[in-house]
Amino acid sequence: MNRSRPAITLTLALAxxxxxxxxVAQSLPKLAQKTVYKVGFAQTESNxxxxxxxxxxxxxxxxxxGHQLVYTDAAGSAAKQVSDVDSMIAQRxxxxxxxxxxxxxxxxxxxxxRAAGIPVILLDRNVDQKLAKAGSDYVTFIGSDFIEEGRRxxxxxxxxxxxxxxxxxxxxxxxxxPANDRRKGFEDAIKGKADMRILASQTxxxxxxxxxxxMETLLQANPTVNVVYxxxxxxAIGAIAALEAAGKKPGKDVMVLSxxxxxxxxxxxxxxxxxxxxxxxxxxxxxxxxTLKDYAAGKTIPAKIINPDREFTSANAKSLLxxxx
Length: 325
Known about the structure:
Order of helices and strands: HEHEHEHEEHEHEHEHEHEHEEH
Distance between the termini: 42 Å
Strand order of the largest sheet: 2-1-3-4-5-11
Helix content: 40-55%
Low-confidence stretches: 1-25
CATH architecture of the largest domain: 3-Layer(aba) Sandwich
Number of strands: 12
Radius of gyration: 22 Å
Mean pLDDT: 92
């Protein structure tokens, strides 16, 4: 049964009575209050510690609550993730948690789920806001403020770097909301500062080995670099390997700045090879399922639910190491 039929029926009725209809958006699908839900979780990939920690948190919370979790891994493919959402729709899950690989193709998948009467909650990445919006196409976005993450890195650098900053920026996956926003936040923070100069920006696709390879290439073209800003820990760790292979001392000859806050990068900060890290907390399970319960109960859900994120510095890294994921 198509749970969105009432909205469609109303639109048709208005058209038949001669009332002009201007692209009336369907209201969000309802979710019945139940003890046990069959819920989809469409993960984007599982090739790094952050994603693994996020998946574990979702699986652990579903198990604790007794829900059936239909889990898929898109293995880094937006097309595969769209197919995964199609499969969940076919299985008639009650709701879908989606961590979008890319903004545009997954916006269409969100709208398809809504048309099928299945509410969608976005986790940690958003979709193109020109194509799909919270409150009409999906319930809400739960995650970090990616622009603020990038801004915090830029502000820390401006405050702590002595002399000229010659920066290489390792970008996340092209077309993803964290890559877009972490770049914007950082570049906005250093804009207009004469002693801050980005030498090169290139995607490392949020991957350690690709981050290393890209850093090796950019380092050859820009040997005077003295700051690396990586959009996640994996690329930062790859960059550290490239710097050391080139005979440079990360954390000293070249500042290393990152976002995510996994235990490995925090330990590298303790060891002096990293200078600053903004946390992006991957433990979504409790908040995700609490939001699902609130939505079923008819509570008002905000368009964005922002996770609180810490920062790691040389002053606090040792004391916070055990609490990093």
